[in-house]
Specification:
The complex is a heterodimer of chains A (779) and B (292). With 779 residues, chain A is of the alpha+beta class. Chain A contains 26 helices and 30 strands. In chain B, the strands form two sheets. Chain B has a nine-stranded mixed beta sheet. Chain B contains six helices and eleven strands. Chain B is 26% helix and 23% strand.
Chain lengths: 779, 292
């Protein structure tokens, strides 16, 4: 295609692209050849723009547009629906939502918490260790660039079934256990090194993740409100300082790679799109950035993530109403012979861009130098809203920023899928052997202890973790419902949980998503925190396929429905499409991260039983709802009845629970989710090596429903016998159902009903639960 | 922030004693300095995290230049100094040795205390400051022990129970009796290992010199295997001091058990205001106060 790409006579690699003479076919060729991932309509818009300018573009200009208009950067497929359903909820305590790299929410009079949540799916599927590590790196930058000190990391992970046979792996697919151990090691080695505790997350296995694993990473930070830094310049004539790692060829086309389906050959073709992380550059970079924030030396800060400089410079200038002039010569490189377009779009890690008033530049450079972090002035803001880029004296880029950032927005067609529930023909049967069913549930990797992964993460660094992800008797800990962090001097805490059940969302995107929301609220309430905000990471398949888009729309609708009724603001988030291969698409996976406020951390409630003889109470209603349940999975039954929920009812229950924590000394609380009541009670016992004597006769329905149904809006609490009657009366008076279930006992876990008895020693229960995952991973 | 707490903070600031100054040394990758500094400040003494470069580099501006001699105590905090891509603590200790060897030797010879937590312990070992058998040569020419990779071959984060076994030599545990404390561990390289040929002799020396400080135990106070001993340390060793008792290194993190709220999520008898980790920092300060 020599006639389309014309080498410019310059002492470096630069091509003029003859777009003006190109027909549709050639436009597509140009897009493919340059790896822009833009379609013909989008290319035509670019052609018109340059026709008006009266010249052809350089390769670097087209590359910049490819980045800016990618799904990853401009949310072209999702924006329309997100605006319609989720972004319309305003609450007075939200300081900044959606607009910046992270959401900013009031914590107390003086402080705000900052929260960001992203996917790092494609890189992790290709290179699990590096992909996950740089995922952590990126999310930390999103929080730091707001001027906040990161205080917690959260990572929900999703893989194919661990027992998958190697011979069954589709070509180009890596084994789920290989991916799991690589991803966990990547999070471990990066998160532990930078010294931010990894306190929450989840690991979920389902067949649908076989060819696309999902790696979501979240981060919470804390900042003084008056230190919050915008992601934009402060005025004309300010300097852009690029700080951190060197710029190299790693991570080129990361965003365009993330905006297309993976395929067999992705490994060879896209290995270069995976960035390389360096936590020991990040750690001092964070310190230096926070120091220049504290000293009030800068006007704006933005992290270099997707799209690299090409996205960061323009956005920082335009958001402030200015243009910019950049000298690429001043960007320190890993490799000397990089073409300007490569420098411009490289996603090399550990880089931050700040804007500084000229008189403070020396002070800023000093701080970076002190921390041994390279930093250079690379450009300046200017009044005219254009972006000019120079390289070795040549002007290689000159476009209006507004055009570059005016990415397309699509209202994609979709087909909704609502499973029809035929209650009578779909009758779920009791297990042939209760003991066997319980055993299989306990050791199912989606239920079993995640200790293997959790212990590899430092969840106590910074010395402010109040409730760890593992709670209870030392070395016999059980899972907690939500982690609690104490971010400031005061006794106020932040509770964090991550939730979604892809088995449920794959059967019914709407009710599955509503269930995820319900679970998120339950977990926050269980530790005695008031739900305060949430962020979402929406992982879906190819949005150009109407049925995938349908899953997305249903999911977003459900989120909007639940969030608006509970007045819970969505403050940040991320949409990840194209989690699809020719083999399959991922189950709809709208991962939710919930944030709650704990008024007094000393009143935070844990999930393990406290002492023998105390009363156990079930709060909530149990119905035969088995769609996406572990019970259905282990007994090989199909159900499309995903547990229902109702935001009004959830609100009533959540408020009553929180009030009951003030009225009574509730010793223990645990939400009922995967595996139902039986698993919830087992987990409470495991963490204390105590059993329980449970009488199910007070609950309506069949025994297996009472034990294993995963109905929403339920909790189990432990209280003193002397409080029992009053507690139940209190819950009833609030319009909530509450049943006495039994007592905490010494060793034996027993479930009893009329003509029914299931007994198992807690030590045996613990062993099944604790070995469920490590039988695959090894210890 | 609540009004009451604001006042509390002001009171706290005013009672900070400037005569005792603690330096928490950092380089890239050390990451427990904030909570370590907090622990000292909570006890009313001046403490600050300083970058190693502030002690020697010409590029540091005057107001940020520091001298080791101005401090009455030094802490090497936890973390992954310089990434710990080679043997943990090796890079930090090499850098310290190249620029501060004499200062550090004088510091120890003059009876001032040095504490190393986790990565800090590893650094003290690499420096030759621990086990520190020779009073006249506080930094041995070559390391005499190593904190090797855990038996589990991976990083592990868990609560650990430690039996205090020092008879009075270690100045960092004077406020502890014969008791069992809970400090969390979080490391990949924490297995105390001596040269095989010298293991027996070294252990005997440590005991005879009263340099043994903490050993891992189970809930019943017994020496037990994994996971109570989380790394496979010989003799269940969690922390030791030098022969003078003024250099102390331990793998578990006392700064993570400084407050009672640091461990609300495991069964305990009662809620105090402080956790057991505070005793280490308090003992160190008490010692410095007497030194003055």
């Amino acid at each position: 295609m020599a006639e389309i790409f014309k080498k410019v006579d310059a002492p470096f690699s630069l091509y003029e692209v003859d777009i003006l003479a190109a027909d549709d076919e050639s436009l597509q060729k140009i897009s493919d050849e340059l790896g822009l991932a833009l379609n013909v309509d989008e290319m035509k818009r670019i052609k018109e723009y340059f026709r008006a300018k009266g010249r052809n573009p350089y390769d670097i200009e087209l590359q910049a547009l490819g980045q800016a208009w990618s799904e990853h950067c401009c949310y072209k497929s999702s924006k329309y629906y997100l605006k319609q359903f989720i972004f319309n909820l305003e609450t007075d305590y939200v300081i900044s939502a959606i607009k910046e790299d992270a959401g900013v929410v009031e914590f107390d009079e003086e402080h705000a918490y900052v929260v960001a949540f992203e996917s790092h799916n494609h890189p992790s599927a290709i290179e699990p260790y590096g992909g996950a590590a740089t995922g952590i790196g990126g999310i930390l930058r999103d929080v730091v660039c707001m001027g906040a000190q990161p205080i917690a990391l959260i990572d929900p992970l999703f893989f194919g079934m661990p027992e998958t046979k190697h011979s069954d792996l589709p070509k180009g697919t890596k084994h789920p256990l290989y991916l799991l151990s690589g991803v966990v090691a990547g999070i471990r080695d990066y998160g532990n090194r930078v010294g931010i505790p990894t306190v929450s997350g989840m690991i979920f296995f389902a067949d649908g993740f076989l060819t696309n694993c999902i790696v979501n990473v979240g981060c919470i930070g804390i900042a003084k409100k008056n230190n919050i830094v915008p992601s934009r310049a402060g005025g004309e004539g300010e300097y852009f300082v690029l700080a951190g790692g060197l710029t190299g060829r790693d991570g080129i086309h990361g965003v365009t790679f993330a905006s297309a389906e993976l395929k067999e050959t992705s490994e060879e073709e896209s290995r270069g799109a995976v960035q390389l992380g360096n936590p020991i550059m990040k750690e001092p970079l964070m310190h230096a950035c926070l120091e220049i924030v504290e000293k009030k030396l800068i006007t704006g800060m933005k992290d270099l993530g997707g799209g690299g400089l090409s996205c960061a410079v323009g956005e920082m200038a335009l958001a402030a109403g200015y243009g910019a002039k950049v000298e690429l010569d001043n960007v320190p490189l890993k490799e000397a012979d990089m073409a300007p377009w490569e420098i411009w779009v490289s996603e090399s890690q550990e880089r931050m861009l700040v804007t500084v008033k000229p008189e403070l530049v020396d002070d800023v450079l000093y701080v970076f130098d002190k921390w041994d972090v390279p930093a250079n002035v690379i450009g300046v803001t200017k009044a005219e809203k254009t972006l000019e880029v120079y390289f070795r004296g040549f002007k290689v880029y000159d476009m209006e920023i507004e055009f570059v950032t005016s990415g397309p927005e699509y209202c994609r067609t979709y087909v909704s899928r609502k499973p029809e529930v035929k209650a009578d023909t779909e009758r779920i049967k009791p297990p042939s052997d209760y003991f066997e069913a319980f055993k299989m549930i306990l050791q199912h990797p989606n239920v079993a202890s995640k200790e293997w992964a959790i212990r590899q993460y430092d969840h106590q660094v910074r010395g402010s973790t109040i409730l760890r992800p593992l709670q209870g008797r030392i070395n016999f800990e059980t899972h907690g419902d939500a982690a609690v962090i104490k971010p400031t001097e005061s006794n106020k805490g932040i509770a964090i949980t991550a939730d979604v059940n892809p088995w449920m969302t794959s059967i019914d995107p709407y009710w599955g998503t509503a269930s995820a929301f319900d679970e998120m609220i339950r977990n926050l309430v269980a530790v005695n925190s008031i739900p305060h905000s949430f962020v979402d990471c929406l992982n879906f398949g190819n949005p150009e396929k109407p049925e995938r888009m349908g899953e997305f729309v249903e999911s977003v609708k459900a989120l909007g429905w639940m969030a608006s009724a509970l007045k819970l603001p969505c403050v940040s988030g991320n949409v990840s499409f194209y989690n699809e291969t020719p083999y399959s698409a991922v189950p709809p996976t709208p991962t939710l991260m919930g944030i709650g406020l704990v008024e007094n951390i000393r009143r935070a409630i844990t999930s393990y039983f406290k002492s023998k003889g105390n009363a156990i109470v079930l709060v909530g209603e149990t119905k035969p709802e088995f769609g996406g349940s572990v019970y259905a999975a282990v007994t090989n039954q199909k159900s499309s009845l995903v547990p229902r929920t109702d935001p009004e009812r959830l609100k009533t229950y959540a408020n009553a629970m929180l009030e009951s924590f003030r009225e009574f000394e509730v010793l223990t609380c645990h939400d009922v989710s995967e595996g139902g009541l039986a698993v919830a009670i087992a987990e409470m016992g495991i963490g204390a090596s105590l059993g329980a004597e449970i009488d199910l006769s007070g609950i309506e329905g069949e025994v297996f429903v009472k034990l294993f149904s995963e109905s929403n809006t339920r909790w189990i609490v432990e209280i003193r016998q002397s409080d029992l009657e009053d507690y139940i009366a209190f819950m009833l008076s609030k319009g909530c159902k509450a049943h006495e279930l039994g007592v905490v006992s010494k060793r034996e876990l027993s479930f009893n009903d009329r003509d029914f008895n299931l007994e198992i020693d807690i030590e045996k229960v613990e062993k099944l639960w604790r070995d469920g995952l490590v039988r695959f991973t090894g210890w | 922030m609540q009004k009451g707490e604001m006042q509390k903070e002001e009171i706290q600031e005013s009672r900070i004693q400037e005569d005792i100054k603690i330096a928490v040394l950092r380089i890239e990758g050390t990451n427990c300095e904030d909570e370590t500094v907090r622990a000292f400040r909570e006890l009313g003494v001046f403490a600050e995290a300083i970058h190693l470069k502030q002690l020697y580099s010409d590029m540091i501006r005057d107001d940020e230049k520091r001298r080791l001699a101005d401090y009455s105590g030094i802490v090497f905090p936890g973390g992954f100094s310089a990434g710990d891509y080679v043997r943990a603590g090796a890079i930090f200790s090499a850098r310290v040795k190249s620029v501060l060897r004499k200062d550090l030797e004088d510091f120890i010879m003059n009876d001032y205390p040095i504490l190393g937590i986790c990565n800090g312990f590893q650094i003290l070992v690499e420096l030759g400051a621990l086990p520190g058998f020779d009073e006249d040569r506080p930094l041995a020419e070559t390391p005499e022990m190593v904190l090797a990779i855990n038996n589990s071959n991976r990083f592990e984060c868990r609560q650990s129970l430690l039996k205090h076994e020092n008879k009075g030599k270690c100045i960092f545990t004077k406020n502890l009796g014969e008791q069992i404390v809970m400090f969390p561990v979080a490391h990949a390289e924490g297995k105390v290992t001596f040269p095989a040929s010298a293991e027996k002799a070294y252990l005997e020396r440590l005991i005879d010199n009263d340099q043994m400080v903490f050993r891992y135990v189970n809930e019943d106070g017994e020496y037990a295997g994994y996971p109570w001993n989380p790394n496979g340390s010989v003799y269940n060793i969690a922390g030791i001091c030098n022969v003078k008792g003024n250099v102390f290194g331990l793998m578990p993190h006392p700064e993570r058990a400084f407050f009672a709220w640091n461990h609300l999520d495991y069964p305990r008898n009662e809620i105090d205001d402080y956790g057991e980790g505070r005793l280490i920092f308090q003992s160190m300060i008490d010692y410095i106060r007497k030194l003055k």
